[in-house]
Specification:
Helix content: over 70%
Strand order of the largest sheet: 1-2-3
Distance between the termini: 23 Å
Number of strands: 3
Shape: flat
Length: 270
């Protein structure tokens, strides 16, 4: 684990989060560099010889790594600079978490190639739905700021000013459901691979454990949300509430359970 790379990337993330919007080129270049360093640090953390090092901190860091990539790409097409103020500081914190909570080693010897694909799908699903949750929080803050338009300019802080630069709520909502759709598809593949290939992946038959129950519950919530959007036109607070509830449930499925095992109970990966 290259600790220097981790802390350098975290510092660069924070610097890019604080830069003014007029420094757009510098922000984009700095964020891209920090993202590359973040990815390199993740590789050195997760891949160790013939083992995978997994834990709640590594998973959370990987999710934010994907979130930063989504923000960076999205910001090149639409003016969503306000998202930078939310995503980058969180990414700066999560990249350093594996230093404190390194997780446990999982041997790859004897594992099916499906195991690596399952892990990759899980990380992609968590990452996609993490950025959707950040997006939902940003939309809620944006909607709240619209109800405070009578606040004097002198009393409006940097966050409110950043929210004012976001696209219209309808545009933000379309982006939210696009990300949820992608995340739901990836989560579906994760669930299917876990259910049908459980014995080949983990060496034991499928069991309804804590992680499985919360994952299935999260999958159901996101599925209901997309169906409600398609057939009932759900939007606004209903969509935001279900998005954040589904994400919180997904966090409990892996990050929460791993946190309890590793930090509270001091047990390794099961």
């Amino acid at each position: 684990m290259n600790v220097f790379t981790i802390y350098a990337a975290a510092l660069l993330y924070l610097s890019c989060a604080l830069l003014p919007e007029r420094r757009r080129v510098l922000v984009a270049a700095g964020t891209a560099l920090a993202w590359v360093m973040h990815g390199a640090a993740l590789i050195s953390i997760v891949f160790a010889a013939d083992n995978l090092r997994l834990g709640f901190a590594a998973m959370l860091s990987a999710a934010l790594w994907l979130s930063v990539a989504t923000y960076w790409i999205e910001n090149r097409n639409l003016a969503v600079d306000g998202l930078r103020r939310l995503v980058l500081p969180v990414a700066a914190v999560t990249i350093a978490l594996p230093v404190l909570f390194p997780g446990s080693l999982v041997p790859l010897a004897g594992k099916s190639p499906l195991f690596s694909w399952h892990i990759a799908l899980s990380i992609l699903a968590y990452g996609s739905l993490t950025i959707a949750a950040f997006h939902a929080v940003l939309m809620a803050m944006q909607e709240s700021s619209l109800h405070s338009l009578n606040t004097s300019v002198s009393r409006r802080n940097w966050l409110v000013l950043a929210l004012d630069r976001l696209p219209a709520l309808l545009t933000m909502e379309r982006l939210l459901f696009r990300m949820i759709g992608i995340g739901f598809g990836l989560l579906t593949l994760t669930v299917v691979s876990g259910v049908f290939f459980s014995e080949e992946l983990f060496g034991k038959a499928f069991r309804l454990e804590h992680k499985t129950v919360f994952t299935l519950l999260s999958w159901a919530l996101f599925g209901i949300l997309l169906a409600g959007r398609r057939w009932r036109g759900w939007r606004g607070k209903t969509a935001l509430t279900l998005t954040l509830t589904g994400f919180a449930t997904l966090l409990l499925a892996y990050v929460g359970s791993r946190f309890v095992l590793e930090v509270v109970l001091h047990r390794g990966i099961a």
